[in-house]
Design goal:
Length: 102
Amino acid sequence: MTRTVFAAATLAAALLTGAAAPAPNNVTGIIGSVIGTDMMIQDRFGNPVHIDAAPAAAAGQAQLLDPGQPVVAYGTRGADGVLHATSLVRAKPSAALWPADH
């Protein structure tokens, strides 16, 4: 109930102020490094992506993953390009089976 009320209040505030809610994003890739709740992954095209896993960890939505493992990070991108993950899950081992990034 608290989440529903908070989400409704956040949406109402965004509508009243004209602020757009951040678009959800997801990126799939191979974990390169993990330092605390920061991780770098290499996406399917070989591009580095900085992931802030603190929100996912705080919400209990982060699996324990090691460098070299495939991961899907769901969240929103900040203005700095960092994906602030609300959920981290293990991805399929084959990139051909990974969901599309957006």
